[in-house]
Amino acid sequence: MQKTDDNRKNQKHFSKVLPYITKHRFWLILLIFCAILGGFMEVIFPFFLLNLTNTAINNQFAEFQSLLLWAVLFMFMKLFHKFLYEQSSNRYEILTIRDFRNLISTRIQKLPISFIETFHSGDLVSRLNNDVDKITELLRKIYILIMQPIVFILGFIYMALISWKLLLATIILIPISAILFNKVIKPIGKNSKKELEEIAKANIITQDAIRGNNIIKAFNLENTFIKKFRKTVKKAQEAGLEIEKSNAISVALFIGLRYIPQLVCPLYGGYLAYTGEITVGGLLASMSLIWLVFLPIENILDSLKVFREVTPAINRIFEILEHSKENSQVQSITFDHLQHPIEIKNLVFNYSKERMLLDNLNLQIKEGETTALVGPSGCGKSTILKILCGFYEPQEGEIRIYGNNLFLSNLSQIRSKISLVSQESYLFPTTIKENIGYGKIGATDDEIISAAKYANAHNFIMQLPNGYETEVGEWGSKLSGGEKQRIALARAILKDAPILLLDEPTSALDNVSEAIIQNILEKYMKNKTVIIVAHRLSSLKNVDNIVVLNNGKIVEKGTHDELLGSDGLYKRLYLKQMNDMNSKSKKMEGAIINAQ
């Protein structure tokens, strides 16, 4: 039953591959034309061989000269055919593989973050590169799968016309070899899948080792990661060796399939020529034709082996391509500014069935107000911001942005109204100018500089060797934490969206950088609708509203002073934080006194 389901799945995926491999029709049609032409040309050569031999033996010089001229013309046609084949094959493969990579890359950008996060980025890169490369092997078999059946049929008929007895004596091994070959190649699909998965794991380990190089060195984990990588590569190697073992056995079968008839043909054919049942030219032609009967079988069986090897790669690719995209409805939506900027109604969300993170949450955010979300770690504060950005879809309830249902609307349009600044804002490995410019595609240099000045980033940028053209490095590695955060703020400022989401934007910064960022935010937050997740409760004294979360529910609401006046969770969290800060200050003072 499982085998039948797998076969159906494979057939379904190959049927879905078909539209993508038939896109470049000019080159595909030319390739098919070359395959058909090549099939006929393969059989023409034995024709010349038979007739040239017979005319020479029978002293038919006029016929011999005429055939020889045609044979020379035929050789020039073969050269032209080879040129056409190489051009059409190479162009078709390159363009089709380019389209596949573009398709997968585009699809990844359109997929929901909740789905993307189920994969490691190294695995996705492996699918984009290694798995797509496997499809190249399938494309190269198109020419063979069209040409070789033609060669086989024509060669079979031509050889039967020369001597059906000789044909029968030479093809007797074909069914046996085909059955044995099918048994040999059965494990290839399973081993190919294992090899691709282990290569993906090796890519993941390499990527993690590069990104976490500081941690690896700080904790002396070099040998651990080396062993982990080598273990994964060894598993990939073992799977690859199993594939090669199957290939080696199949080659041995091919040799038997190919060369045993080559012994039968001259021996039995020589006897038939001796008895006068065939001519000498017929014998020579049959010895050439036997290749045209058996090589197509060999090539078709080899294509079956490639089919099994490529199937796991196609399955892995379509795991990405088949997943539904984020909502991107083309109809435009309207933003009613008389409605609340954000309304959350009966929101239920969990990452897994075992634990409810947000339970029947209801919240209204008014225009121009700053609302803070606070509560114990893991209560869902940051998750709310991610849901508001459309990164995750709740199990129940709805969210409205200026009157529009978030998950029934065009997410791109919704996100145009929202700026997000998180604890670790990502910088792309390009220039500072380009990173800021992503806030508003097509922004002028003056707009970018103005946003940088507002974010208090212009001065330090101008002190860099290349100013705004300075490359920030991967993950912004060439900048300090405070500098990266100011670049991220400049990007958000340039976007100038009416809703601003701040997810602990200063928690990873030192006191000086934190003070700078806080000043920028206080200035920028005016006239914006803001939701802020803050780790330092003392910074929330001036916000309009504080929402306290616990166990997925809102347990308190109010201003800083109102919540401190009641004996609730917020007051306990605030007092605990103040006590912790006082304890740290006393410890530092004691350390300084002892040092003196």
What key phrases describe this protein's structure?
about 600 residues, alpha/beta, ABC transporter transmembrane region fold, Rossmann fold, four-stranded antiparallel beta sheet, about 65% helix, transmembrane, Vitamin B12 import ATP-binding protein BtuD
Structural class: alpha/beta
The average pLDDT value, as a whole number, equals 79
**Major sheet attributes:** 6 strands, mixed
How much is the radius of gyration in Å? 36 Å
Strand content: 5-15%
N- to C-terminal distance? 79 Å
Q: What is the overall silhouette? A: elongated
Q: How many strands appear in the DSSP assignment?
A: 10
What's the number of structural domains?
3
